[in-house]
Fold each of these.
Amino acid sequence: MDWNKEVLARKEELIKDTQRLLKIKSLLDEENATPDAPLGEGVKEALQFMLKLGEKDGFVTKNVDNLAGHLEFGQGEELIGILCHVDVVPEGDGWTSDPFGAEIRDGKIFARGAIDDKGPTMAAYYAMKMVKELGLPLNKRVRMIIGTDEESNWRCVDHYFKHEEMPTCGFAPDADFPIIYAEKGIADYDLVQQGLGSSNDGKNVLLSFESGRRYNMVPDYAKANISGDGSDLAGAFERFLNENEVTGKHSNTAEGFLLEVEGVSAHGMEPDKGKNAGLFLAKFLSGQELDRQASAYVQFVTTYFQQDSRGKALGIAYSDDITGDLTMNVGKLSYKKDVGGTLGLNMRYPVTTNLDETLSRLKDKVFNEGFAIENFTDSKPHHVDEQDFLVQTLKKVYEEQTGEKAELLSIGGGTYARSLKSGVAFGPLFPGRPDIAHQKDEYMIIEDLLKATAIYAQAIYELAK
Ligand SMILES: [Zn+2]
């Protein structure tokens, strides 16, 4: 079968339908949610657009409460799933053309959602349509599952899989080619200082300390308020900034002495790519004479997290060949006099980690330092065996279609594929292409759209035949 030829025969139609889908402003809109449009009218419209397209082309379609839906064809006991989403993140500023105009320039379609995930959704749709139109014999059913809340809270797939069948295996065209087969576990939690009671027993009293708002980001700003005029701290702070090559400033306020540090933000899955402003400010404070409670807080932060994103000082460092190192990002730091301090952590752990053991070691360690673990949430690691039929089949297809070796990728982040029981992320971004998802002037290269369609078509056929 010449899959590329089949795609080219449908090229104009594929581009037009992609543009039509991209023109729908499918942003989460909870303010205007109704029982009939629980995430707003925009995402509902995009979902219905796909379902109508499927109906027209003879797929069995189902709308699951305007949160998700599916298109299905083929027959058999087993079900192959293709997981896509039609919601997009807000467009932001600075676009060259209308972010919902789907303008074509230099062989690219520009629009919010072009690469994430409407372009790939349409590629996968045409892939299904091709296999169906060619009338190739299948022994399994093939189902495209369409979510509308991937960019926010995954309420789409949560709801969908509560009511609908879980595919035997499948893929999500919502990340990178060749194949992402392993993803670390992701846990967010707080370490909360247990009350020492208020104290005014140091030379300086730390009134407040604040840095970062999200678990999964390296904070690029931190500030601390200290009692007094800071005359004994100013010089030392300036030297500290110089020695550590970070920028910052100090000033006198109505409350006292304000210290500010600027760092470099980065994604929480690799904290070493950034400069954590909160950790630097805590390090400075740990060298000063502070009240007892504040001193315990900044000492703790510095001892266990400064220059250590792998949990070594905490005794929980771990690594495996599949997904690499356990990583710890201190995404939030906050301290208030009379209340105490908190650290908000984003911990990404390898697929073979014994989480219970790790947590019990962590709990003991921080307990001895006067801290407790609170607000723990966890998304389990996701891994499909390299020898699995799914991985082997997709590998073969990718190599045949591109002539390149299909390296298996493992990542610290989480892809949509983890909502499938046995699923991998498979495209649409080809190796070497810049990742422009969520950025201004997001685009999909038309040549890549066509290539991905051919790959998905062969993949669907090989998985379902
Ligand atoms: Zn996506």
Amino acid sequence: MNWEEFRKRGADAAHWASDYHRDLRARPVRARSKPGDVLAQLPLCPPDAAQPVDDILADLEQTILPGMTHWQHPRFFAYFPANAAPISVLAEYYVSAIAAQCMLWQTSPAATELETRVCDWMRQAIGLPEGFSGVIQDSASTATLCAVLSMRERALDWAGNAEGLSGQPTLRIYCSAEVHTSIDRAIWISGIGEANLVRIPTGGPTRAMDVAALRAAIAADRAAGMLPAGIIACVGGTSAGATDDIARVMDVAEAEGLYTHVDAAWAGSAMICPEFQNLWAGVERADSVVLNPHKWLGAQFDCTTHFLRDPATLVKTLAIQPEYLKTHGADGIINYSEWSVPLGRRFRALKLWFLIRAHGLDGLRQMIRNHVDWTVALAQRLAGVPGFEIVTQPMLSLFTFRYAPPGAGDLDALTQDLVNRINDDGRIYLTQTRIDGALVIRFQAGAFTATAEDVEMAFDVITELAADMRPV
Ligand SMILES: Cc1ncc(COP(=O)(O)O)c(C=O)c1O
């Protein structure tokens, strides 16, 4: 295809996208494919001869789309959202067309400078004080890896990068049992080792880290000759929205001289609403904070904003400047690839810039407030239906529940059965998790185009299918 043909095909794609989104409610949310269904339809070998674009697009409709789960469906209540607002899709279209590689300031000054500005807009929006600097990473997992590498190198006075970890003191990092598995991965990749990720017990309605236990664990490790390096706190954990008491965690970190990272990958978007900022009071004392506008806010994947109180620590950990990457003759510039693990960088700031301007913070706040209100109302309604138990109360727009009618027997099996029935039905999509060992169903409302009626339909589907399961 050449760019002249693209003119028509690109316009067709825009029409297709608009129709796809208009008609999404008619599709089952989760793909109905069985394992191997799609693979069986794909030729074993690549074509030697060019194929007509019409054929390729026909295969997209017939082979690929039936195997897609529709993450932008308004009744996607599973996992966390991965919202792609239309304005952000448009931004990505421009980004794809320009296709710049934005690793250094000079490889696209506008991309770097827009990233600086738009991160600062986000900083203000979520209530972080001046002095925090932001960077857009590809994922929260990468941001957490950056934070863990910073913890490691700072604790070892940058000897880890230079000499490796052999012969170094044993590093220790602390978090609760509620953190996302991206923390485990960062610990593995950084060479610190899972055994040195110390899980602090949690308690209370927010499932927060027990700060006295945290303090005791650090003291015991020091007494045993180990080297505490950092604490990872969570705001809005993945299973049930567990949220640490950030201010109390920071008291410990400051007293112990430890680097802190706050993972608010999902819940962080809600901090654009001032009334939710109390959920992470004390965050202004953290060294590193991550949130994903690509989850709830609407900046299409991938778009992770990572805020640093002192970016020099991260830059000292990651920056390498061979001659071929040097920017001569330009002072005071930022090369964001020195703040990230990969060298290459997409132009991610454009979609955040478009999104914030096109919706305004007020528009985005309203979306989040709606989701929270509708979720709280749903949890209250479900709690009133005999047999339903709310297992964890709503944290923003996430709660967990199960169906436990009297005499139900194996509740885990019943819960899994209900999740399966709901997802096979196709009108909504939910997922399960474990809370204190018990299988429960997660509900989160976060789809960009969800309405109150969509959330009400969740109530109808859940109660209707549960009623079908009642022993007669
Ligand atoms: C709390 C939390 N942290 C981190 C992540 C990882 O996010 P990413 O896919 O951007 O790496 C998730 C993903 O759902 C999450 O829920």
